[in-house]
Amino acid sequence: MARIVILTGAGLSAESGLGTFRDKDGLWTRYALEDVATPEGFARDPALVMAFYNARRANMVAAAPNAAHRALARLEAARPGEIRIITQNVDDLHERAGSRAVWHMHGELARARCAACGAVWPAPAQMRPADACPDCAAAATRPDVVWFGEYPYHMEAIWEALRAAELFVSIGTSGQVFPAAALVQDAARAGAETLELNLEPSEVSRDFEETRLGPATELVPAWVA
Ligand SMILES: CC(C)NC(=O)[C@H](Cc1c[nH]c2ccccc12)NC(=O)[C@H](CCCC/N=C(/NCCC(=O)O)S[C@H]1O[C@H](COP(=O)(O)OP(=O)(O)OC[C@H]2O[C@@H](n3cnc4c(N)ncnc43)[C@H](O)[C@@H]2O)[C@@H](O)[C@H]1O)NC(=O)OCc1ccccc1
Q1: Distance between CA 144 and CA 101 in Å, rounded?
Q2: Number of domains composing the chain
Q3: ipTM score of the complex?
Q4: DSSP label at 22?
Q5: In this structure, are 99 and 132 located in the same domain?
Q6: Ligand-binding site membership of 198 (annotated)
């Protein structure tokens, strides 16, 4: 079981050019969360939701891991089996930097899912609702992401990892989305040390023993070194 559990958010990928959600020009200033990141929004206008995720997938493909992603991959390589990354990010920059022990608790842009049978497969660049499922042939394709009101992935494994953690580190997240924002409390309750690395104080900074402020590409390599 991993001694060090690391939670990451949109702030980790910000310096790779992938917009965050809540910063001044963030995604939620340009799209209504209710329209593009809820099952109800998808039912109302699947084409709008697909356009939103197809655009983010294209941005992801054009982006590259930054020094913070690479530092975390180095840490995992230096300490095999000791590091577990839990990310709220749906991009694949952790894996492209070389990290392997990664749980995407809110899903992945790189995957499509069948809303009828649950099958998942690599997402085409331009996903369409009518795309047929390779398993059941249903035309019920959706992005394999966790929308608001849906149950996040890996929750049981995440809580188990937090029970065994000696150190919990949070990087680039505003602490406004649950249950991700409550994981620091779960870690602290289990006796782990808690460290926050973020550009600015978050909604849950008070739950951390230590908070270091600054850009991830500076704070993370310095912490790993
Ligand atoms: C809005 C909020 C109030 N609503 C919720 O939290 C809801 C409802 C809710 C549940 N429990 C609650 C309790 C209280 C209140 C509300 C709730 N939660 C849910 O619906 C969740 C499902 C939520 C998942 C939604 N899907 C996403 N993403 C996938 C899609 C997509 O990506 O489109 S959420 C999405 O938004 C969140 C964005 O947050 P951040 O990543 O933190 O990004 P943000 O822009 O906010 O902040 C960026 C931070 O980085 C910093 N930064 C910026 N640049 C840098 C930089 N360069 N370096 C360092 N830091 C930097 C900034 O300072 C800032 O602090 C991420 O989680 C991201 O994945 N499901 C659920 O609860 O199921 C039941 C349950 C309950 C308990 C236990 C188990 C199950």
Answers
A1: 19
A2: 2
A3: 0.95
A4: S
A5: no
A6: yes
